[in-house]
Hints:
The protein contains seven helices and eight strands. It is of the alpha/beta class.
Amino acid sequence: MMRLLLVRHAATAWTAQERFQGQTDVPLSRHGHRQVAALAQRLRAETIHALYASDLQRAWETAQAIATPHVLGVQPEPRLREMAFGRWEGLTYAEIQQRDAPGLAAWERDQLHIAPPGGETLLQMSERVRAVYTSVVSAGQDKTVGLVAHGGPLQVLLCLALGLPPQAYWQFAMAPASLSELCVYEQGAILISLNDTHHLHPGPLTEAEGIEPSQTRDHTIQSPRGSAET
């Protein structure tokens, strides 16, 4: 059996603005760094044998914070990058609707085979995520391995592990700096936990304590037509 700890990177300025980040290399925001510190503390007591991360800095910075207390090297894995949204990156959903309504409608009808302009299809992302999952699982029996990445590839990885079609990825929610866990056996995988963010809210939080409502939201666009990390 192998344990997979799936970590979505912490928040960026574009997360708060609900912009499509894709493969644009956006750094963590100040709020994101606070989230990372809480996440690293949460995982301090875990025994982690290996840690892989997307090489985009928002994921890489998150992984480095987790690795430091364990004196563990992070292995860069470009195949864990977010879906490439091409010319839509940096735009909000409303802005894409305004500028490219036909392209957006076509993509939402068939994300598996249709890509955003200059981007990649869901099938292309699924193939690279499948390759990472197969490689990590084959090398990590009886180990606990962390994967630090983005909403899209992590949601697709859950589909692949659980025998679901990639198009079902929008049915899994993963908030910034969230922790999910899979146990992988020869017969298949079991989802142990999903989208755990308790480490970000150790006690009751209110606006009076300086926590804005937007800081506790999952800024992934979720709908039956698809999802996009923002």
